[in-house]
Design brief:
With 458 residues, this protein is α/β, with parallel strands linked by helices. The chain has 9 helices and 39 strands. It folds into 2 domains: 222 residues, Alpha-Beta Complex (Spore Coat Polysaccharide Biosynthesis Protein SpsA, Chain A); 186 residues, Hexapeptide repeat proteins (UDP N-Acetylglucosamine Acyltransferase, domain 1).
Length: 458
């Protein structure tokens, strides 16, 4: 089947300036590898046929993007950008339309920009349309060469004359090119330049011979920012954070201190949510209407319901919290924790792989692991579900409206019935039936006129 569009993403560079064992395009930026951003931008612009050209660390890149539905091509030798694009020919397949070409290390490129480039190219009837910009400092970029209003070529900085280096409009390295014309043009690219490489920019001169080359200018130069070292990675991440946070604020979310707040692009936040300073929202986290996320909290891959309050410095990982519940401060919800509506998980309470039904109160200094706690039950301070015997995990089940006294140890497997009471300080090793009192502690002895030991002085 002949396709109308394709995208070729160049991701074969060694990334030596990153000074890392990790391939450059796999370095994380706001929770995603660099390469994920141009892939998603292409798909957002309606291009599903995406080919990544890999070289150094190619196997790691393939493994990282397994299941993404993209194809890969290998550039075994680093012979220039034209050589890299030509390596993608077989993987691209039969396309009679337009190819987007862009770099794998430009995470800030927007889908709207790529869509504008595609539309401009399609309406112009040109062979090649590139994305250009006018930066404050054009050093390091290829300069666009014009004769009158006609784009006739690009000269790389290392090959440019002093006069050409004074030109301001530069190439961003993102193109829309007609297919199959591209493959014919690449076959004619030579390597007669200072680097001895096959430059993709040479196709501009070929297309210009019949007036078929042109450019559109970026509105936001940050979109063309490449990441070549850790300083640029940090700056790109800062810019992405600003972009993500701004979008949420325009959609009705309050950020108490936007520069300190980390929200990954995959997180979903409803309106009237308040986000405190130094909060991190990671992965596929969903925050419901009216929730309050307190300062310093970390939430990852979790569902936070309507009007929930997560108080400062709480950690919520792969958990769910139903509406109007209150969490923290300093609470820890681990994977598998499910907190019911209007429940309370207080300071220094840890919940792991447990269900707390509506109205449960575990207000302080408690561990609930592999447990199910019925609605309306009160868990006293210092309660521990002893779920592990050193080999196996066991479950604790507590019925509705039970009362667990402070400093109790519930040794699983064990079941506490509905409306049962466990006396403070008890170690419970057997089931307690509904409505009963379970108590297990030594009888108190009071010794009158007790004399405390006296410290001897040498």
């Amino acid at each position: 089947m002949v396709k109308e569009k394709a995208a070729i993403i160049l991701a074969a560079g060694k990334g030596t300036r990153m000074r890392s064992r990790l391939t450059k395009v796999l370095h994380p930026l706001l929770g995603r590898p660099l390469l994920a951003y141009p892939i998603n931008a292409c798909r957002g612009a309606g291009v599903e046929n995406v080919v990544a050209v890999v070289g150094h660390g190619g196997e790691e890149v393939r493994a990282a993007f397994e299941g993404w539905g993209i194809r890969f091509a290998n550039q075994n030798e680093q012979l220039g950008t034209a050589h890299a694009v030509l390596a993608a020919k077989e993987a691209v397949g039969e396309v009679e339309g337009i190819a987007l070409i862009l770099s794998g290390d430009v995470p800030l490129i927007r889908e709207s920009t790529l869509l504008a480039l595609l539309n401009a190219h399609k309406s112009s009837g040109r062979k090649v349309t590139l994305l250009s910009m006018v930066p404050d400092d054009p050093k390091g970029y290829g300069r666009l060469l014009y004769e009158g209003e006609n784009l006739v070529g690009i000269v790389e900085e290392r090959d440019a004359s002093p006069e050409q280096r004074r030109l301001k409009e530069v190439n961003t390295g993102t193109y829309a090119v007609d297919l199959p014309w591209l493959w014919d043009a690449l076959a004619r690219v030579g390597c007669d330049n200072e680097q001895g490489e096959y430059y993709l920019t040479d196709i501009i001169g070929m297309a210009a011979k019949d007036g078929s080359a042109g450019a559109i200018k970026l509105e936001d130069n940050d979109e063309a920012m490449g990441v070549n070292d850790r300083v640029q990675l940090a700056e790109a991440q800062r810019l992405m954070r600003v972009r993500v946070n701004r979008e949420h604020m325009l959609n009705g979310v309050t950020f108490e201190d936007p520069p300190s707040t980390w929200v990954e692009p995959s997180a979903t936040i409803a309106s009237d949510v308040t986000i405190g300073a130094n909060v991190k929202l990671c992965g596929n986290t969903v925050i419901g209407v009216g929730a309050i996320i307190g300062q310093g909290s970390v939430i990852s891959d979790s569902a936070i319901g309507r009007d929930v309050e997560v108080k400062p410095y709480s950690v919520v990982l792969e958990a769910s919290i139903a509406g109007s519940a209150k969490i923290g401060p300093f609470a820890h919800l681990r994977p598998g924790a499910k907190v019911g509506e209007a429940a309370r998980v207080g300071n220094f309470v840890e919940v792991k792989n447990s269900i707390l039904h509506s109205g449960v109160k575990a207000s302080h200094l408690t561990y609930l692991g592999d447990a199910e706690v019925g609605a309306g039950t009160n868990i006293g301070a210092g309660t521990i579900t002893c779920n592990y015997d050193g080999v196996n995990k066991f479950k604790t089940k507590i019925g509705e409206r039970a009362f667990i006294g402070s400093n109790s140890s519930l040794v699983a497997p064990v079941e506490i019935g509905a409306e049962a009471t466990v006396g403070a300080g008890s170690t419970i090793t057997s089931d307690v039936e509904s409505g009963a009192l379970g108590v297990s502690r030594a009888k108190q002895r009071t010794i009158p006129r007790w004399k405390r030991p006296v410290k001897r002085e040498d």
